[in-house]
């Protein structure tokens, strides 16, 4: 968001990718815009397209479990200071790292993500 003055701002809406899922937050925003008469014809077309191709109804990601966090923690144990830094991270950050690891589709992908995580965690950085 960009402030225009003390009372107004503008918000940039980027073009959705063809197969992007609609989060509950984005669906609520779209409904709010429609309800306030601010939705454009183009926006309505994108919503109809998402409903037709199923992306509007696609479930969100499953919640990260404590067991998954523990499994990732065990994988990081051999890497110091990455392991210690991971242990000190707040729970939401641990969940983000954990989701990134378990969302990889292949073993090669998970290996690349561990390398990426270790690099960032050695510097005590959050995922993004």
Q: Based on DSSP secondary structure assignment, what is the total number of beta strands?
A: 2
Specify the structural class.
Answer: mainly alpha
Quaternary structure type = single chain
Q: Uncertain regions: pLDDT < 50 for 5+ in a row?
A: none
N-to-C series of helices and strands: EEHHHHHH
Rg over CA atoms: 20 Å
The portion of residues forming beta strands comes to under 5%
Number of helices: 6
Mean pLDDT: 92
Strand order of the largest sheet: 1-2
Helix content: 55-70%
Distance between the termini: 19 Å
**Which geometry do the CA atoms define?**
elongated
Main sheet, how many strands, which sense, barrel?
2 strands, antiparallel
SSE layout and pairings?
Blueprint: E1 2-3, E2 9-10, H1 24-35, H2 41-53, H3 66-76, H4 82-88, H5 91-102, H6 107-122
Antiparallel strand pairs: 1-2
Helix pairs in contact: 4-6, 5-6
Structure description:
With 128 residues, this protein is mainly alpha-helical. Helix content is 55%, strand content 3%. The chain has a two-stranded antiparallel sheet. A hairpin with a 5-residue loop joins strand 1 and strand 2. It is elongated, with a radius of gyration of 20 Å. The two termini are 19 Å apart.
Which tags fit this structure?
single chain
Question: What does this entry show, briefly?
Answer:
This protein has 128 residues and is mainly alpha-helical.
